[in-house]
Write a structure and sequence with these properties.
binds molybdenum atom; five-stranded mixed sheet; 375 residues; alpha+beta; 42% helix; Sulfite Oxidase, Chain A, domain 2; single chain; Fumarate Reductase Cytochrome B subunit; binds ligand MTE; 2 domains
Length: 375
């Protein structure tokens, strides 16, 4: 089968339009991607994050099609710059699309895959962006590899589609296996710089998570001796637990994957803390209690779970992650962890647990996220 897509010497108008669209959509994708990713941009954008997410996915899918379409041609031989112009967008673009699909697919894929996909998605965006700049630069210099006619040999063949499928399969494998963060850590010289000791390096935990979210200005902090966890509501004996009291309760540990609804995941997180059944034992909720409401000392964030959900064996109040005390950004000193639900249920900087007959509307639920956030 041979399709004549465009005549000798010139790109047809629609293909030029498509080309411009691809560039514009890449820029929009980068901007919306940064908005989804960067915690600092979250606060002012909160009411729009869901729509930004949907727009990002939709643009990404159209981007995949528009990127591929002009390239379904046989590569003319002997043209260096053309080759360059041809290979790089595919090199960055194809895996960019694939990693995006992994992220979009969320928990269909193992957390290791999505977490690598998240890192690669960012790195490839940088690569693609750099290429677009170079491309724009030499085009501005008047170097137009295809303006003189690319002989118009349009020939999308089965072979070409198979090549694409193969490329995709390889990309899939690579993303599942190769951890770019581990590579960077492996090749980076350690401990050789004289000033190395003056720079506190982030703990492994800080490097592992995709992003650290806050809906207020900065990450709230609280000294341990000032910290108290209030446990109240419809209970026989409401109480305020000091940090040392909290730490004297029987510890509870587990290893679970963590998934944020915006696409990033962290596999095998080691959590240690207190199970909610310990609080139940202490304060004795009345039989009318159906919900547990959670409050953060950031003053804004709230969450709510059904009592049965809160007492699930996987749910805990965590004070340690991967063997380290929680960092400030991670919700120190205490955060909720609900592994079976999306990350927004896992409220950070927790300072009040209320046993209640009625639920409260959680922070993100207020903006339309479902209260039952099962993954
Ligand atoms: N107090 C508070 N808790 C919060 C958030 C927040 O912004 N503030 N973000 C939630 C979201 S959307 C996710 S995915 C997780 C992220 O945890 P991390 O910030 O430790 O990566 O925390 C959740 N708990
Ligand atoms: Mo999230």
């Amino acid at each position: 089968m041979k399709i004549q897509w465009f005549k000798h010497g010139k790109w047809p108008k629609w293909l030029v339009g498509l080309h411009h669209y691809t560039i514009a959509s890449f820029i929009l994708l980068t901007v919306s991607g940064i908005a989804l990713y960067l915690p600092a941009l979250h606060a002012p954008l909160i009411p729009y994050l869901r729509i930004i997410y949907n727009i990002h996915i939709l643009l990404g899918l159209i981007f995949a099609i528009t990127l591929i379409t002009p390239f379904l041609r046989i590569l003319p031989k002997g043209r260096r710059i053309w080759k360059f112009d041809w290979t790089l967008p595919l090199l960055f673009g194809v895996p960019l699309v694939f990693t995006g699909i992994f992220l979009w697919g969320g928990t269909v894929f193992p957390a290791t895959v999505t977490s690598h996909a998240f890192t690669w998605h960012g790195l490839l965006t940088i690569g693609f962006g750099a290429w677009i700049l170079i491309h724009a630069f030499y085009k501005a210099l008047g170097i137009r590899p295809y303006a003189d006619g690319i002989a118009g040999r349009v020939n999308p063949e089965r072979r070409l589609f198979l090549r694409w499928a193969g490329l995709g399969a390889l990309g899939t494998l690579a993303i599942a296996v190769i951890d770019p963060v581990a590579i960077v850590r492996a090749i980076r010289p350690t401990g050789t710089r004289a000033d190395a000791t003056h720079v506190p390096s982030p703990s492994p935990g800080v490097q592992r998570f995709g992003a650290y979210y806050t809906v207020v200005e900065g990450y709230p902090s609280m000294a341990l001796d000032a910290y108290h966890l209030r446990v109240d509501g419809h209970v026989a004996s409401p109480m305020t637990l000091s940090w040392s009291k909290l730490r004297s309760l029987p510890p509870y540990s587990e290893v679970k994957d963590f998934h944020c609804v915006t696409g990033w995941s962290v596999p095998n997180v080691h959590w240690r803390g207190v199970h909610l059944s310990q609080l139940v034992r202490l304060v004795k909720p009345s039989s009318s209690v159906k919900y547990v409401n959670f409050y953060s000392f950031d003053g804004v964030y709230t969450e709510s779970l059904k009592l049965s959900e809160a007492l699930d064996p996987s749910v805990l109040l965590a004070y340690e992650m991967d063997g380290q005390p929680l960092e400030q950004a991670q919700g120190a000193p205490l955060r909720l962890i609900v592994p079976k639900m999306y990350g927004y249920k896992s409220i950070k900087w927790l300072n009040r647990v209320e046993f209640s007959d009625t639920p409260i509307t959680g922070y993100w639920e207020h903006y339309g996220y479902p209260a039952e956030a099962y993954i």
